[in-house]
């Protein structure tokens, strides 16, 4: 019977694969959850397997840190929307219209009819470094990439922005008193003018974990984990904040307002919580990561707005899909993933996904399963014939 039960298992598995494939043919209503698909690792599953995992999770918004063609091809004919990235090392070249046009024509245009690319982030956390050339190149690079998209007629479907660390704020509490660092004003003011003109959102990477870790005796854990708590009152607006992330978002709105801009949307390009950390990284644990991300997902699904902007649903890309074993820095850096590279969840937040064991391709509409599967199928059939 052993042979037959494993044969049956294989059949079930194949059925599941076909089921997943046919299900993907219909438009799946996404839950609005975005996820960062970082790839600083040497043990991640192939993009085509990841595309099945994300389909099974109903995740239809993905952010990359580059424009990896392997990923973009693996997601062709899917309904997944991509934010793609230009790393900081590209900024100088992107100030050159010829180089910007070459990049868009080589890295974006070939994919755009099959894969929904909706946004390009030009640089990531540029103001974390103190490389002033990088600071000065940021806006010209964004403008040049934007003009290229306009020239190619792509500016209506692809927006241009950049992602900032929350460190660009000098003050974030109370939220109504949020302000940008004075030393960055000369860069941020024209940047905001660009966002307003190009109608593109302002992206922030926000980690309440950092605030908790730096000050665990002062920052209530419930407040950073979206758990029930009294919250903090903003004494100027009388708005009550029951979690730090919303306070951070509204602090950015206030900082923009102080520079004369009230029509630029704030989105969270990264947020998350590590499931593991060094001994001094207080709060990094699977329990806290499960609470942070699980509670956050519920608020995303409820399309909540922040206290100062209740009618604007929070727009969030969670960091990150996988643990990334080659990221430098403290242990926490390698443990932000919702999933281990083998596709098992690091903790349970109700996202039951399926990472297929076998490789197959969505690249063309004719889906082909690799010969290896048919080969093992054949072996099972022969084995079962012999055993019966
Ligand atoms: C995905 O979305 C579909 C349609 O909204 C729903 O029926 C299904 O349960 C969802 N699956 C998951 C894993 O959330
Ligand atoms: C920038 O352009 C130069 C000259 O074309 C090229 O050699 C270099 O590789 C480019 N840098 C990046 C990061 O693409
Ligand atoms: C900033 O630059 C100074 C020297 O100009 C250097 O000593 C310092 O370490 C740099 N800081 C960072 C965060 O790179």
From TrEMBL:
EC assignment: 3.2.1.39
One annotated GO molecular function: glucan endo-1,3-beta-D-glucosidase activity
Transmembrane segments: 369-387
Swiss-Prot/TrEMBL keywords: Glycosidase, Hydrolase, Membrane, Signal, Transmembrane, Transmembrane helix
GO biological process per UniProt: carbohydrate metabolic process
Stored SUPFAM superfamilies: (Trans)glycosidases
Residues in the signal sequence: 1-22
InterPro entries with a match to the protein in the record: GH, Glyco_hydro_17, Glyco_hydro_17_plant
Catalytic reaction(s) noted: Hydrolysis of (1->3)-beta-D-glucosidic linkages in (1->3)-beta-D-glucans
Similarity comment: family membership: Belongs to the glycosyl hydrolase 17 family.
Protein name, UniProt field: glucan endo-1,3-beta-D-glucosidase
Native source organism of the sequence: Acer negundo (Box elder)
């Amino acid at each position: 019977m052993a042979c037959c039960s494993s044969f049956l298992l294989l059949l079930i598995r194949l059925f599941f694969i076909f089921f997943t494939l046919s299900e993907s043919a219909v438009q799946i209503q996404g839950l609005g959850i975005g996820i960062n698909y970082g790839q600083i690792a040497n043990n991640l599953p192939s993009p085509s397997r990841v595309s099945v995992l994300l389909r099974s999770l109903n995740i239809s918004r993905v952010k990359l840190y580059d424009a990896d063609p392997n990923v973009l091809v693996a997601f062709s004919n899917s309904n997944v929307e991509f934010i793609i990235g230009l790393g900081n090392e590209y900024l100088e070249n992107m100030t050159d219209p010829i180089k910007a046009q070459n990049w868009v024509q080589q890295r974006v245009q070939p994919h755009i009819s099959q894969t929904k690319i909706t946004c390009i982030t030009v640089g990531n956390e540029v103001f974390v470094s103190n490389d002033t050339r990088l600071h000065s190149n940021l806006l010209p690079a964004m403008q040049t990439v934007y003009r290229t998209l306009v020239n190619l007629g792509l500016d209506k479907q692809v927006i241009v922005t950049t992602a900032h660390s929350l460190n660009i704020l000098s003050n974030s509490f109370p939220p109504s008193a949020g302000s940008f660092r004075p030393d960055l004003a000369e860069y941020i003011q024209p940047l905001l003018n660009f966002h307003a003109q190009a109608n593109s959102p302002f992206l922030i990477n926000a980690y309440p974990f950092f605030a908790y870790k730096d000050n665990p005796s002062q920052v209530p854990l419930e407040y950073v984990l979206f758990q029930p708590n009294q919250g903090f009152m903003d004494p100027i607006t009388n708005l009550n904040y029951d979690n730090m992330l919303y306070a951070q978002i509204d602090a950015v709105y206030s900082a923009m307002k102080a520079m004369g801009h009230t029509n630029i949307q704030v989105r969270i390009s990264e947020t998350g919580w590590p499931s593991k950390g060094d001994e001094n990284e207080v709060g990094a644990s699977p329990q806290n990561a499960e609470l942070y991300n699980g509670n956050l997902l519920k608020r995303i699904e409820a399309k909540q707005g922040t206290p100062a902007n209740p009618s604007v649903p929070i727009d969030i890309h969670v960091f990150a899909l996988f643990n990334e074993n080659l990221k430098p820095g403290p242990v926490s850096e390698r443990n932000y993933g919702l999933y281990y590279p083998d596709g098992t969840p690091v903790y349970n937040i109700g996202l039951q996904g399926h990472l297929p064991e076998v490789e197959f391709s969505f690249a063309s509409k004719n889906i082909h399963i690799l010969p290896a599967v048919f080969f093992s199928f054949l072996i099972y059939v022969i084995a079962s014939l012999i055993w019966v």
